[in-house]
Amino acid sequence: MxxxxxxxxxxxxxxxxFSMAIGIGACNIRYRQIIIISLVVLVFHIVMPLIGLSLGAxxxxxxxxxxxxxxxxxxxxxxxxxxxxxxxxxxxxxVPMALKPFGLISRKGGKxxxxxxxxxxxxxxxxxxxxxxxxxxxxxxxxxxxTLTVLTIGLVAGIMTALGxxxxxxxxxxxxxxxxxxxxxxxxxxxxxxxxx
Length: 197
Hints:
Blueprint (H helix, E strand, L loop, with lengths): L1 H24 L5 H25 L1 H32 L16 E4 L2 E4 L3 H25 L3 H30 L3 H18 L1
């Protein structure tokens, strides 16, 4: 029963990463980037609950909600910028190019594409892993096997991220130029859901 409960928690925590990956995967992401980002998300989903556990219940509620708000805002902003760039098309320089220094996106051959720069990966992975920080606050009270729990959470999140990227990449091929707008809408939706729920 313990493993089943941990799997449910892991899937719940992995849904944000899965949804984010669908949105970004629709915008020209390479297989190497899928592997790198999925592995980083996996590591973040292992480390964040451990950080949450070490911070303890005293700071849990205040920091947990703040972490969720920051993650929600990051995803929503990236989504809005993707929508704006998608609507402007190849002609406009667009606001998303402001994210280029962070390694999130680049323009190649007139098309915006996801890049796997260090800071871009850190922003994406941390924004979808902050809810795992909150879960870490309650792990001590659940009396689960800590090693099994965090490894399961990390593995499930990494797999869900990779599957989301692959699905988004497939959908992006079907949707063509509209994929960036749809990806942006998905990210904004995730951000709104994380902010209010």
